[in-house]
Write a structure and sequence with these properties.
Elements: H1 8-17, E1 19-22, H2 28-43, H3 46-55, H4 70-76, H5 79-85, E2 95-105, E3 112-115, E4 130-136, E5 140-141, E6 147-149, E7 175-177, E8 179-180, E9 184-189, E10 194-196, E11 209-218, H6 230-239
Antiparallel strand pairs: 1-9, 2-11, 3-10, 4-9, 4-11, 5-8, 6-7, 6-10
Length: 266
């Protein structure tokens, strides 16, 4: 699925809809190497330590970040993804890596309310694009909890939680994405409102829900980081040579200073 010309119609619609669905975008070999890394990340407590480091700014940064993991680093700069994001309808030629999260959720897990993830404080415009790239390593099915998006809502200027009072309720015009094969990817404009529906009560089985979530931003403005140890993440990427051919991809100059959540403007 490396030839992005197959998605030309979708990329032209990204500006209007705010999302792309790419079934089977990742090669099976990469997925096979990512899965045990996610298991290790979760089971050794590394994921929780990375969360704790964000919840307690000023404390010790984690010893390991996601980009230290071999296959996760490869995923962050997967060439077909870089080519796709370089499309003028998405980020264009110059963009910067923002963050990477990886998780494994059990079947039957709860949902997540309507929200968006565009980093801007305060929310004031949508001049520069930011995207979140959701990789569903084992695919997506109702019993794992579907993704639901609200097309066009990325053009609104609204706070992240402007629809959180609606929970995961059904909204007019929503699109439900809950039937994808392993290695599928969904690209969201980060300002697009979306939610995670709870797993289907009628069929709570089906294994764990593996998702790796990467984020990238168009250059030309300075972006707020979401992790207090963001410099460490970028340094790991540069030390691994992940920025080969893309000098802006892990450059610190595209970010503002980190602000602890309690100090952020609303």
């Amino acid at each position: 699925m490396g030839d992005i010309s197959a998605f030309g119609v979708q990329t032209r619609n990204f500006t209007e809809d705010g999302f792309l669905v790419l079934p089977g975008f990742l090669p099976a070999g990469l997925v096979e190497r990512l899965l045990p890394e996610v298991d290790e990340w979760v089971e050794t407590g590394a994921r929780q330590r990375s969360i704790d480091a964000c919840l307690r700014p000023g404390g010790q940064p984690p010893q390991t970040v996601e980009l230290d993991l071999e296959a996760h680093g490869e995923l962050a700069v997967y060439r077909p993804l870089m080519d796709l994001l370089s499309h003028p309808d998405l980020l264009g030629e110059s963009f910067v890596f923002h963050h990477l999260h990886s998780d494994r959720r059990p079947a039957g897990a709860g949902g997540k309310s309507w929200h968006h993830d565009y980093e801007q404080r305060p929310q004031r415009d949508r001049r520069f694009a930011m995207v979140h790239v959701l990789h569903y390593l084992c695919g997506l099915r109702r019993e794992l909890g579907g993704l639901v998006v609200l097309p066009g809502s990325h053009r609104e200027v609204a706070e992240k939680d402007a629809r959180s009072h609606l929970g995961t309720g059904v909204l007019p015009g929503e699109v439900v994405i809950d039937d994808l094969p392993p290695g599928s990817t969904v690209v969201l404009h980060s300002a697009l409102f979306h939610a995670r529906r709870a797993a289907s009560a009628a069929d709570p089985g089906g294994g764990a829900r593996y998702m790796t979530d990467g984020s990238y931003c168009r250059t030309g403005t300075r972006w707020p980081p979401v992790k207090p140890y963001w410099r460490q993440v970028l340094a790991v990427a540069r030390a691994r040579g992940l920025d080969a051919g893309r000098p802006e991809l892990f450059a610190e100059r595209h970010f503002t200073a980190y602000e602890a959540p309690e100090r952020r403007s609303v």
